Amino acid sequence: MSFLKQLLTPFIEFEENKKKELPEQNKPATVASSQVQKTIPPADENAQHPLINSSTTPADQTPTYSPAGTIAAPQPEHEQYFEKLIDEANRNNPFFQGTDFKEFVDSKLDIDDITDENIKYRTAFNVLKSTGLTKERLLSTGQEYLNIIGRDLNAFQSAHAQQY
C-alpha cells in the first residue's frame, strides 16, 4: 500500500477496504451538496501542473470504474507523482527532519504480519517512541503532509480550470 493511501486511509475509504466489510456496511454514504466545498482557485494564465498533460496518458492506461462510478484504482503515474511529492517534502523540508508521520507509516507497513490494525498502530508507535516520536509530532506532521497534498490539489485545479 502506498504512502499516500496510508496517509489518507483514516479519512477516505478505499474500495479494497470496503470489500472486507459486511454487505450491509457496503452502502455508499450520502453527502448533502451543501456540505461539499468546492475550492477552485481563480484561473491563472501561467498555471501548470505535471499531471495535466494530455500527451502523457497512454491509451492502455484508461481507468477502470467501480459499479458506483468512481475510479477503482489509481493510475500508476499518479501514484508515482504523489510518492515523489511526499518523498521530496520529507527530504527537503526542515519540518520533517527526524521521525515523523512518514516513518510511522513505513514502520507500520513493515509489520504487515500483524492482522489487527489496533495492535499494528500501537506497535509502530511504540517502536518509534524511542526515537523521539510523540503523538503531537505524529499529528502535526501528518497534517502538514495533508497540507502539501492540498496545496498541490489547488495547483492542479487551477491548471485544470485554465486548460479545460
Offer a few descriptive terms.
mainly alpha; 6 helices; 164 residues; globular
Task: Write structural notes for this entry.
- The chain is an all-alpha fold and 164 residues long.
- The chain has a domain at 74-164.
- It contains 6 helices and no strands.
- The longest helix has 29 residues, at 135-163.
- Residues 22-43 have low confidence and may be disordered.
Q: What's the pLDDT, averaged over the residues?
A: 77
Secondary structure category: mainly alpha
Sum up the overall morphology in one term. Answer: globular
Can you count the beta strands? 0
The helicity comes to 40-55%
Number of helices: 6
Estimated radius of gyration: 18 Å
Which residue ranges are poorly predicted, with pLDDT under 50 across at least 5 consecutive positions? Answer: 22-43
Strand content: under 5%
Spell the H/E element sequence. Answer: HHHHHH
C-alpha end-to-end distance:
32 Å
State the assembly state of the protein chains.
single chain
Report the biggest beta sheet as strand number plus sense, adding barrel if it closes: none
